[in-house]
């Protein structure tokens, strides 16, 4: 389950050009490949380091349920 505020505001934020560009740039390449390859382990390792909000945004952007 994604954090409700992120779920609510994500589509609205993606209407802004700079947010869409930032999201596309940051989730392209090596990070996307690593997350898809290691999945749950990658998320479990990163959550304490980066925080729940960052992981929530990444999960929403990658369409992880």
Which key terms come to mind for this protein?
5 helices, 65 residues, mainly alpha, globular
Describe the structure.
By secondary structure, the chain is mainly alpha-helical. The protein has one domain. The longest helix has 11 residues. It is globular. The mean pLDDT is 77.
Architecture blueprint of SSEs:
Layout (H helix, E strand, L loop, with lengths): L3 H10 L3 H10 L3 H9 L1 H11 L1 H10 L4
Helix pairs in contact: 4-5
Q: What is the radius of gyration?
A: 12 Å
**Strand elements, count:** 0
Structural class: mainly alpha
How would the global form be characterised? globular
Taking the sheet with the most strands, its summary is: none
Question: Percent helix among the residues?
Answer: over 70%
Low-confidence stretches: none
Whole-number total of structural domains = 1
Oligomeric form: single chain
Strand content: under 5%
Q: What's the N-to-C terminus distance?
A: 6 Å
- Average pLDDT works out at 77
Tell me the number of helical segments per DSSP (H or I, 4 or more residues long): 5
Q: What is the chain-wise order of helices and strands? A: HHHHH
């Amino acid at each position: 389950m994604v954090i409700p505020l992120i779920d609510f505001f994500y589509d609205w934020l993606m209407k802004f050009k700079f947010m869409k560009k930032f999201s596309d740039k940051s989730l392209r390449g090596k990070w996307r490949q690593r997350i898809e390859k290691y999945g749950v382990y990658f998320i479990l390792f990163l959550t304490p380091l980066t925080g729940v909000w960052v992981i929530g945004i990444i999960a929403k952007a990658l369409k992880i349920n």
